[in-house]
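Usage

Read records sequentially. Each one opens with the input sequence:
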Amino acid sequence: MTNTAQTLDLEAVGTYLAGNLPGFEGPLSARKFEGGQSNPTFLLMTPKKNYVLRRKPPGSLLKSAHAVDREFRVQRALADTDVPVAKMHLLCDDDSVIGSMFYIMDHVDGRNFSDPTMPDLSNPERSAVIGDMNRVLAALHMVDIDAVGLSDYGPPGNYFERQVGRWSKQYRASETSRIPAMDELMRALVDGMPDDDGQRTLVHGDYRIDNMIFQKDGIRCLAVLDWELSTIGHPFADLASVIMQWQMPAGREGRGLAGIDRAALGLPSDEEFIASYCERRGLPGIDNFGYYLSFCFFRMAAIIQGVLKRALDGNASNPERAMKVGQYVPVFAENGLKALKG
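and closes with the structure output:
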């Protein structure tokens, strides 16, 4: 069969798993997850056990993007740490099997909150969920990268300098129209680059509540998902990523908390979340947070520009949503400039 971002050759997958995954027994069926714009992800169902397959999209891709092999490596390395991840099983780097690299992991049976207001929860439950989100973030940044074998997972040097350079190139490679605010933001991030303060930790790269699975009837995080942007870098980028998401419009589209009375819902303010994180890590506070927040808006603008480009090229994971998301590039760029100036 023809492999696309929307389809999966189940016969080929089943044959591969039967020969490589201990304990696997068919028959096999699959369902594509709706969420996610980067690497197509499928639920694999068998009578005894469910798995998840995450693959690179087929077709022409930007260099260094869609690194499912890195996702597999980092999650396997975190298996025995305080950072909850799904169990990794197999990485297949043979493109001839289904047309692109993929990996197999356990399916984590829990619940996902696409809306950070969590409308079905009580105030104490909302507070506890965000508290556990904070706990996991601090735990991630305290992982001993040498002990888990990830000391070479990212290059040395100024993380922000490296990332601004990388995502500027990615943005230019997927640019479909000129956006003056994005041009200005890229220049401003270079001009205001902070000095390297020596912090070097594992970072997720897209840390937000909808990339986490929680207990079905509890508040504890069972797994952090979507590690494509993970590397060794600066922890404040992950922290700012959370705050960035909360500044977006409320609802399923924006998935933010803009205009929401957080106290009335039992949700923390930005300052309270940052203070809890600093307390967990033993930090006195964070200077120049506006830069880190601006960087996150910039990186997300570059990412969703790539999503838009893939939609126009015909190989997006979710074409309809990709076109909608792509319209937010100027919004993220403007917000990045506001954060930098504010």
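Summary fields computed downstream for this record:
- Confidence is low (pLDDT under 50) at residues 1-5.
- Strands lie at 29-32, 41-45, 50-55, 88-92, 102-106, 201-203, 212-214, 221-224, 231-233.
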